[in-house]
Amino acid sequence: SDVCSSDLDKLTVRQVMTVFELLIEKIRSVGGQIVVSAANGKIKTVEEVDGYYKITFEQENTFVPHDLMRCQTFTGGALKSYWVEVFAIDGNSVLVERSEFGTSLPAVGDEVVLMGNTTNKKRQNLIVISATDDGQPRVDVLNGVGQKSFENSLRARFGNLDGIEDPWFPDGVKGDGLY
Known about the structure:
By secondary structure, the chain is mostly beta strands.
């Protein structure tokens, strides 16, 4: 059979189109970091209720009690960052004690991700893909994030290894590779 290749600028199908293999090529870019974890959300509403922030998401809530929910953005010279523990679930909302927040408060449009859990070990893992201005692109696999810190949680890194401290390597770990 002959191999046929052609380009189309526009295709309109009014009834039925059967495709045995479809390849869509698209380049996407995300500045900063991508976090792969068991929960995330974009805040739809925030209300203060009896010493808590009741945070409702645009989509179905995927957080559970004791999840460590993190938001971090840097826009226009302003840094917004909070890393808070979910106290309870109320339908499609989470309750977080007001005292968990510092100067950065939850707001409509904030995107939050699960970055650990204080009690459930199955929710203490995540993957962080970073391509930031620090010149150290990397993919980190973390596990054991049971507090608002990544200390002792790095299980593997692919990419730039600068900054890893490990007693097995007293001179430090540097350059690119797999750790």
